[in-house]
Amino acid sequence: MIRHIVMWKFRPGTRAEQTQFLEGLRGLQGVIPQLLSSEVAVNVGQGNYDAVLVSEFKSLEDLETYKNDPRHKAVSALCKSIREDRVAVDYEF
């Protein structure tokens, strides 16, 4: 099993787009078969990253299939237009 964790810092003044992006991510659950589970959350603290995705896949191949799915790419394109920074980690568990 693979856990895929991504965190983002968003540019100021993009609150509406952030909401659209995060809802878009949430909407991929149950739509892309390789995505076994996902949690999308907004940071409630100060001075850290703004949002996080924690998702699970059976394999790295399934993660790659998810990343290349056109529905994920559409959501990801919105994120790329509003983010300042992104960090990610993938690990086996």
What class do helices, strands and sheet pairing give?
alpha+beta
Oligomeric nature of the chains: single chain
User: What ranges have pLDDT less than 50 throughout 5 or more consecutive residues?
Assistant: none
Distance between the termini: 6 Å
What percent strand? Answer: 25-35%
Please name the CATH topology. Alpha-Beta Plaits
Largest sheet: 4 strands, antiparallel
**How is the largest sheet built, in terms of strand order?**
2-3-1-4
Q: What is the alpha-carbon Rg in Å?
A: 13 Å
Quick one: CATH class? Alpha Beta
Number of strands: 4
What is the share of helical residues?
Answer: 25-40%
The name of the CATH architecture is: 2-Layer Sandwich
**Helix-strand string:** EHEEHHE
Q: How many domain regions?
A: 1
Number of helices: 3
Q: Could you characterize what this model shows?
A:
Strands 2-3-1-4 form a 4-stranded antiparallel beta sheet. The protein is built from 3 helices and 4 strands. It is α+β, with helices and mostly antiparallel strands and 93 residues long. The chain has helices spanning 15-26, 60-68, 70-82; strands at 2-10, 37-42, 51-57, 83-92. Helix content is 37%, strand content 34%. The protein has a single domain (2-92), classed as Alpha-Beta Plaits (2-Layer Sandwich), CATH 3.30.70.100.
